[in-house]
Specification:
The protein is α+β, with helices and mostly antiparallel strands. The protein is built from 10 helices and 10 strands.
Length: 390
């Protein structure tokens, strides 16, 4: 394998604290994550000890308030941390993004009492979260979900099945969207469900094309009883909370996609500099040089797009359109760049001896999760042309 180390991304960071944070993340990524990534992805091993380390290092609650154990970092910094983690191993970067997504409902819509009771453990106490919106029959059409929560005195009894749940079966808490009222989006409510709740179980994890170290499973709720004190927001507010969470979550996916694309580009550049054909490095051939230039340009454009959306969010301005654009562009870029990286490595790119094929397999799922790229185009078009006629 090539031994030429890639150059770190030259990042524009707002503070010295942010620069120190990125240095810490790079050190953890190089020492604790990247060395075992290929082997553990091949065997499907989830690195729970890495998430414990990230929690102990203050990296699982970066965009949330310091009052409750968060890092109180702007999204433009948090997303660049995600990118660094995903470049080392997507299972880790995506896992942090999903944990942040799962914590959002309580952090943004919980009462002060709820936040004081639960957030410190969620953000810095070693816990790991999962986000439960999708179901076997409701993916892109999430408002048609069927999981029900029925009031029983001071409790709610939740019954149903959630699908495609990252960290399903290993999470310590689940943010669950369930139907408490009428059909459609206005009848959905959010709940914080403990991972050890009686009646909660997970199916065998899905066998996936890539991202094998990150468990994705159906989660079954069979009469799971939770107190009303674990209801997040008002009854019927759950779908609005879910969509609001996804606007930010899409930026997390965008950052992870650029991380994977950057790792693939670094691999391709390193290989092209070492591999010799016809008496010279293949990096000297113009056709290949142009491929590398296009890959790098697409990555820089994607990074700029997700950071623009993040800065809008940090300023308290609308960012939904830009988040959809970032998710669309960055994940499509990851697919193109990883495919080109495999091509540059030739036959070696198609083997598991080099990481390019793993990056390509992992990139594909990023075009699907947290709203397919077809859904992102619908969101963008609505901002441009208004809602579709019914």
């Amino acid at each position: 394998m090539p031994d030429r180390a890639p150059q770190p991304v030259d990042r524009q960071l707002p503070t010295d604290e942010a620069r120190d944070l990125i240095s810490l993340v790079r050190d953890i990524a190089q020492r604790e994550i990247a060395p075992s990534a290929a082997e553990e992805e091949d065997t499907g091993r989830f690195p729970r000890e890495v998430f414990t380390l990230l929690s102990d290092s203050g990296l699982l609650g970066l965009p949330y308030d310091a009052e409750f154990g968060g890092g109180e970092q702007p999204y433009e910094v948090y997303l660049q941390v995600l990118e660094e983690l995903a470049a080392a191993r997507l299972t880790v970067g995506l896992g942090v993004s999903v944990h942040t997504l799962a914590s959002y409902a309580l952090a943004a819509h919980g009462t002060k009492e709820q936040q004081t009771e639960h957030l410190p453990a969620m953000l810095g106490g070693g816990l790991l979260g999962a986000y439960c919106l999708s179901e076997p029959a409701s993916g892109s059409d999430a408002a048609s979900l069927r999981t029900k929560a029925v009031r029983d005195g001071d409790d709610w009894v939740i019954t149903g099945t959630k699908a495609w749940i990252t960290h399903g079966g290993i999470a310590d808490f689940y943010t669950v969207m369930a139907r408490t009222g009428e059909d459609g989006p206005r009848g959905i409510t959010a709940f914080l469900v403990p991972g050890d709740a009686e009646g909660l179980s997970a199916a065998v994890p899905e066998k996936k094309m890539g991202l094998k170290g990150s468990p994705t499973a159906q989660v079954h709720l069979d009469g799971v009883r939770v107190p009303d004190a674990r209801r997040i927001g008002e009854e019927g507010q759950g779908f609005a909370i879910a969509l609001s969470a996804l606007e930010s979550g899409r930026l997390g996916i965008a950052a992870c996609a650029i991380g994977v694309a950057q790792a693939a580009l670094d691999e391709a550049v390193s290989y092209a500099a070492e591999r010799r054909q016809f008496g010279k490095p293949i990096a000297d051939f113009q056709g290949l040089r142009f491929m590398l230039a296009d890959m790098a340009t697409q990555i820089e454009a994607g990074r700029a797009l997700y950071l623009t959306a993040a800065r809008l969010r940090d300023a308290g301005l609308p960012f939904a359109k830009q988040a959809a654009m970032a998710k669309l562009h960055c994940t499509d870029t990851a697919m193109r760049v990883t495919t080109d990286a495999v091509q540059i490595l030739g036959g070696y790119g198609y083997t598991a001896d080099f990481p390019a094929e793993r990056y390509m397999r992992e990139a594909k799922v990023l075009q699907i999760v947290e709203g397919t790229n077809q859904i992102q185009r619908m969101v963008i078009a609505r901002h441009l042309a208004g809602p579709e006629e019914r």
